[in-house]
Amino acid sequence: MTWLVPLPVVMPLLGAALTLLLARRARAQRWVSIIVLAATVAVAALLLVQSSLDGPLVVEVGGWVAPMGIVLVADQLAALMLVVSASVTLCVLVYSIGQGMADGNEETPLSVYHPTYLVLTAGVCNAFLSGDLFNLYVGFEILLVASYVLLTLGSTETRIRAGTTYVVVSLLSSLIFLVAIGLVYSATGTLNLAQLADRLDALPDDMRLVLQGMLLLAFGIKAAVFPLSAWLPDSYPTAPAPVTAVFAGLLTKVGVYAIIRTETLLFPGGRTADLLMVIAALTMVVGILGAVAQSDIKRLLSFTLVSHIGYMLFGVGLTTPLGLSAAIFYVVHHITIQTTLFLAAGLVERRGGSTALDRLGGLARLSPLLALLFFVPALNLAGIPPFSGFLGKLGLVQAGVDDGGFLAWALVAGGLLTSLLTLYAIARVWNLAFWRAPHPDMPEPGDADRAARTGGAEQPHEGASPAGAVLPRLMTVPTAALVVLGLALTVVAGPLFEISTDAADDLLRRAPYVEAVFPEGPP
Predict the structure, then answer these.
(1) Compositional bias (Basic and acidic residues) at which positions (predicted)?
(2) pTM
């Protein structure tokens, strides 16, 4: 079954090439993209089943034997990330197709969008599967190039400005990562992760700490942890709704994944555990305070995105099986729920003409379905029982209590405070946008169509969807599918926790990963 391992990277790249050739055939582009991503979901599911049964699957790219060649490794953590990320990207793709068709493709020009979107997917999958530090760097660079194109779709001044900030910050983190790679190779003579797990242990403690710190800094910027997160709330909300959704759901989680992988495989022992816990607490609290202060739904959700990254670092910093297992579970939960909320925000913008809370109202009466699509994942994000958000946070709290240290208890308190403030922020959005009386300036359904017929259609602000438009089915269905997926995480929480526990055990033991790459031991 090892032949399946490179397919999540290869298929999107081939799909990107094919959709580029089909630039003048919009319908063919759409079908190619959907088929490729659906096939990627199926392959990822097979990899998860196979890695759970037989251990990590390894492929030596180009037939070059490790460590001379690059390897792709599909262990349970990588396969689980592939399943959830491919499922999310497929739903967002269908949503974006619906938005493009409804808007006349002004927001998502198909000749550019589909190839770039598939390249982005390939970069995400490559980062998850990479068994080599430099190949992980390549995955991040693929993400950077594709995400910049997606972020600046429409070429508006606001998006170009936000995209420039995003690129500068991303290039800075990539430069730090590249310098760290050079130092690691200079100190050990290899970049293969399995071989590094053996060789880094032989380095002096101070040298290991410097290398660990540089990698943490690079990945911390990409994961948007405090105080390296100021760029995110100014960059993500300016993009089209599907782009913002896939960015929020996946890009920061690739950084979190890299932190989990390197901290457990390369630098066991928890020398930076206290630092990670302090950063986690600050990320949670500062991020959610920023969310509470926002008056725009997209910016509010961007700050909650930053805040809840802290929960994942919480589990990593504890360096215990339960803490790491809960962190992995929470990553899966957050990818799904955060993406869903940003898609719902796009529907709010389409129906209400804006995401500014002072220009919205009465959406629960005007569009009950939209209210439901926002309400359910919002409660999940806040951690209301019995949703998966509650179960993930409960696992983290239990791990913190079991640790019993001062920082662990401080993190438990910070996590509970963050959860309460998240509920307050979400309730505020619900009261202002959905529950109170409609704003006088809010359009009625069909206003956009009537304005278009009379030649007076006008966008309420730069890049907004047609105000008052009826929600397109191809945008509503994938949003509803992700809502159902979020609910399914609660139903299958037991098996999912078993997978995350097995993945955490393998990460902390390190031997399954190393032995899969080097059955006879690292050279």
Answers:
(1) 443-452
(2) 0.90
